[in-house]
């Protein structure tokens, strides 16, 4: 990945941002596929969609990585909690909603 300071113009920077956005979408699409598989496995193993300790474990790891990487930790937490809630809803479509 090119260092941000090495972009010489806004046009060049925008190309870099667009390329990164494409990569992020591909990675999130892959995560969606992983969650679809998780729902299948949870169904077989009789597990609920939301496993609270796992949610907190994922968020904790993301916050630690964000801090090391220089990302705003609060933003990382908000993004991941939103994403996790979305994926849990996706799993609940397969498993049925918890009471």
Written description of the protein model:
Helix content is 77%, strand content 0%. Helix 1 (10-44) runs parallel beside helix 3 (73-95) and helix 2 (52-69) packs antiparallel against helix 3 (73-95). The chain is an all-alpha fold.
Oligomer type: single chain
**Would you tell me the structural class of the helices and strands?**
mainly alpha
The number of helical segments is 3
Instruction: Estimate what percentage of residues fall within beta strands.
Output: under 5%
Gyration radius, rounded: 17 Å
Order of helices and strands: HHH
Mean of all residue-level pLDDT scores:
95
What kind of sheet is the major sheet? none
The separation of the N and C termini measures 45 Å
């Amino acid at each position: 990945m090119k260092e941000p300071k090495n972009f010489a113009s806004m046009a060049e920077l925008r190309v870099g941002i667009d390329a990164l956005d494409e990569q992020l979408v591909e990675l999130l699409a892959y995560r969606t596929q992983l969650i679809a598989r998780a729902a299948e496995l949870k169904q077989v193993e009789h597990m609920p969609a939301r496993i609270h300790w796992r949610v907190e474990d994922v968020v904790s790891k993301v916050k630690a990585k964000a801090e090391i990487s220089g990302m705003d930790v609060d933003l990382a937490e908000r993004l991941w909690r939103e994403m996790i809630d979305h994926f849990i809803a996706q799993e609940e479509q397969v498993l049925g909603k918890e009471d």
